[in-house]
Specification:
The complex is a heterodimer. Chain A is an all-beta fold. In chain A, 0% of the residues lie in helices and 53% in strands. The N and C termini of chain A lie far apart (41 Å). Chain B is mainly β.
């Protein structure tokens, strides 16, 4: 069965510093990996995805993530955090085989201080 | 396209009443997902459909919950009878095929008193 772990409930960084939000996954086959962001009282917005190819993927708002197959990780990163990046971030996985669902981690709250 | 549309946005109901949540997926998308978000459990997958057919409903918490997708443009999630512990935000999402991202609706905030 698929599963996603986000080991940190909250990440605190100062504006201008780099940020990392961690994610590890477990699937039986090849993974499709995603990051979403949720602002208060809003739905989830897609940030970026890894399907195949280059292990470093770039997404919206300057975010990027690195796929590491040996460590089964897909950490979200940004070189310089903004206060406006403060939100709830979800990592999700979907198996490559047909008919599988998108499974989410519990989410990590990112707080960027000015 | 207007995106995934959910209705109502907010629902307050009394315990024991029937509640129906509605979702219109993005046109052409063949996967539809229902999720529930709570502080305690995070984002849980309840059920998902592929080409209007339920594929996995193992996340539906109890028989009080049921979901249908009578056609490609409409799905419902019904709770009967509702209980206070059903209070949560319910999201609907759709995707084109398995390899791409799912798009989420704005959610329905359900409060059962």
């Amino acid at each position: 069965a698929q599963s996603v772990a986000q080991p940190e409930d909250q990440v605190n960084v100062a504006e201008g510093n780099p940020l990392t939000v961690k994610c590890t996954y477990s699937v039986s086959g090849n993974p499709y990996l995603f990051w979403y962001v949720q602002y208060p009282n809003r739905g989830l917005q897609f940030l970026l995805k890894y399907i195949t190819g280059d292990n470093l993927v770039k997404g919206s708002y300057g975010f990027e993530a690195e796929f590491n197959k040996s460590q089964t990780s897909f950490h979200l990163k940004k070189p310089s955090a903004l206060v406006s990046d403060s939100a709830l971030y979800f990592c999700a996985v979907r198996e490559e085989q047909a008919g599988t669902a998108l499974i989410f981690g519990k989410g990590t709250t990112l707080s960027v201080s000015s | 396209d207007a995106g995934v549309i959910q209705s109502p946005r907010h629902e307050v109901t009394e315990m024991g009443q029937e509640v129906t949540l509605r979702c219109k997926p993005i046109s052409g998308h063949d996967y539809l997902f229902w999720y529930r978000q709570t502080m305690m459990r995070g984002l849980e997958l309840l059920i998902y459909f592929n080409n209007n057919v339920p594929i996995d409903d193992s996340g539906m918490p109890e028989d009080r919950f049921s979901a249908k997708m009578p056609n490609a443009s409409f799905s419902t999630l019904k709770i009967q009878p509702s209980e206070p512990r059903d209070s949560a935000v319910y999201f609907c999402a759709s995707s084109l095929y398995r390899g791409v991202e799912a798009f989420f609706g704005q959610g329905t905030r359900l409060t059962v008193v």
